[in-house]
Amino acid sequence: MSLKNDPQQQVIIFDLDDTLIQVNLKAYLSIAWKAFPRNIGTLMFLKSSRAKDKYGNKRFKAIKTDEFSPGGAATSFAFYGLYVNNDYHFQQLIPELLKAVWDNAVFMTGANTLLAYLKQKGYAIVYATNKDYTSYKHVAESMDAKYKNAFSMYPTCTLVTHPTKISLQKWKEQMNNQSNLPEEFKQLVNQIIEAKPDQQNNVYFADGFEKPQEEYYTRLISLLDSHNLADKEYIFFDDKPVNIEKAKQKNIKGHVVKNVADIVKGLEKEGVLDPNNDRELYEQLEKEGVFGFIKKVSRYFIKS
């Protein structure tokens, strides 16, 4: 039996950053403004404090233990403030920098329209992200305020990253050992330590695991099973090739994408979208500037 164009048999899974959402320029201008002039040097030090992990991802590295930071923004910067650079003024700035990023998160061009269309057609949508829960929560609040709660309404469930209980206990001890911490920074670390899965909004933790680790995908499949999405065809979109490569090893179909036009192309290959059958969607995406000039010309000939 063909699964092509069957919302009851296909599940569409999306990464978030640089796949569906991005941070607009205002965030970076805000960061530069907040950091100037006292913390400009510290911002420059951030780059030299990172090293590549075994997957090629750049992370902060603890000076004493060589331990890598978690991948999410909030957990990564909390780790940085606890283990890499305990400069009081920069610790004080970290929550503001994160807020600038969270507040300026927006859908990539055409993403909101595409998600709404897929949802209306009956497809189950899942977010599978390396965002930590604290970052996801704040981004969701910011996005929902901009897009009339659409961001949180689209997914059937969401899998985010989160440090293990053992790691968080170490963070707590490290925080207690530092007597002179800014209150704002302590509140951020405590938010992370005290976070729990948000079952009301179907947001769950991949405790201690991140893409492209195999365990992340094992947890993702288990989460799908628990939401009555077992034994279906899974189609995954991510901007990082290594994440797609690992997903395919778990029998998840995958496409590396950089924008919504790439997602549409992948959905065409999987039989989910068709330029003729879904003409209304394509016309709207064209109006929003999703397709380049060459693709617009090709769409014209398809329609005619």
Describe the structure.
By secondary structure, the chain is an alpha/beta fold. The chain has a single domain (10-273), classed as Rossmann fold. Helix content is 51%, strand content 16%. It is built from 14 helices and 10 strands. The chain has helices at 25-35, 40-48, 73-84, 88-103, 111-121, 133-146, 150-153, 165-177, 183-194, 214-226, 241-249, 260-269, 279-287, 293-303; strands at 10-14, 21-23, 50-52, 58-60, 105-107, 124-132, 155-162, 203-207, 233-238, 253-256. Strands 8-7-6-1-9-10 form a 6-stranded parallel sheet, with helices on both faces. Strands 2-5 form a two-stranded antiparallel sheet. Strand 3 and strand 4 form a beta hairpin. Helix 8 packs antiparallel against helix 9 (183-194). The longest helix is centred in the N-terminal third of the chain and has 16 residues, at 88-103.
In short:
The chain has helices at 25-35, 40-48, 73-84, 88-103, 111-121, 133-146, 150-153, 165-177, 183-194, 214-226, 241-249, 260-269, 279-287, 293-303; strands at 10-14, 21-23, 50-52, 58-60, 105-107, 124-132, 155-162, 203-207, 233-238, 253-256. The chain is of the alpha/beta class.
What order do the helices and strands come in, and which of them pair?
Blueprint (H helix, E strand, L loop, with lengths): L9 E5 L6 E3 L1 H11 L4 H9 L1 E3 L5 E3 L12 H12 L3 H16 L1 E3 L3 H11 L2 E9 H14 L3 H4 L1 E8 L2 H13 L5 H12 L8 E5 L6 H13 L6 E6 L2 H9 L3 E4 L3 H10 L9 H9 L5 H11 L1
Helix pairs in contact: 1-4, 3-4, 3-9, 4-6, 4-9, 8-9
Describe this protein with a few key phrases.
two-stranded antiparallel ribbon, 304 residues, Rossmann fold, 6-stranded parallel sheet, alpha/beta
